[in-house]
Amino acid sequence: MTARRFALLLMSAVGIVIAAYLTVLHYDTGVPLYCLGSQAHGLINCENVLTSPESVVLGIPVPLWGLFWFLVTGALVLMSRQSERIRSYLMAWSIAGAIVVIYLVFVEFDVLHHICIWCSTLHVLILAILGVQVYEAGVRS
Questions:
Q1: N or C, which end of the chain has less CB nearby within 10 Å?
Q2: Could you tell me which residues are beta bridge partners of residue 56?
Q3: CB within 8 A of 78, min separation 6: which ones?
Q4: Could you report the per-residue pLDDT of 77-107, keeping only the tens digit for each?
Q5: pTM of the model
């Protein structure tokens, strides 16, 4: 296994764990929310972000969408060594993820005026996954 594939799988696995935690948190109010800096008027406020109306899209919690994204990413990474076509799907999937991240960050800052550290970690992972894809594409060409 190449270092690139290992890094992508590791980032996908971390994303799966965090997104699964946030999904469980959405459905089970008995699960404690661990978030640094959750002051009522501070910039970092995971509770406000995770319980906002914007945290559900098409009736599905955003963390569940994220869980799906990371699961598909991991599957594509595992299959990517088999074909160039799968690598191009992974690149397109990573670009789509980055576009969604840009939108979600906009919502956090402009609409909610709060950010969630857990969400930001997922955003960084998605952008890092795209970065690895772009780097590899540059190396291959």
A1: C
A2: 61
A3: 9
A4: 999 887 889 999 999 999 999 999 999 999 9
A5: 0.93
Note down the domain range covering 105.
Answer: 3-140
**β-strands 56-57, 60-61 pairing:** antiparallel
Express each pLDDT in 60-71 by its tens digit. Answer: 999 999 999 999
Q: Tell me how far apart the alpha carbons of residues 61 and 37 are, in angstroms, rounded to a whole number.
A: 23
* Counted domains in the chain: 1
- Could you tell me the two tokens for 117? 């550290």
Please give the backbone phi and psi of residue 115, each rounded to the nearest 5 degrees, phi first: -125, 160
| 13 close to 138: Cβ distance less than 8 angstroms | no
Q: Helix 3-27 to helix 117-140 angle, to the nearest 10 degrees?
A: 160
CATH number at residue 128: 1.20.1440.130
Question: DSSP letters along 66-125, please?
Answer: HHHHHHHHHHHHHHGGG-HHHHHHHHHHHHHHHHHHHHHHHIIIIIIS-B-HHHHHHHHH
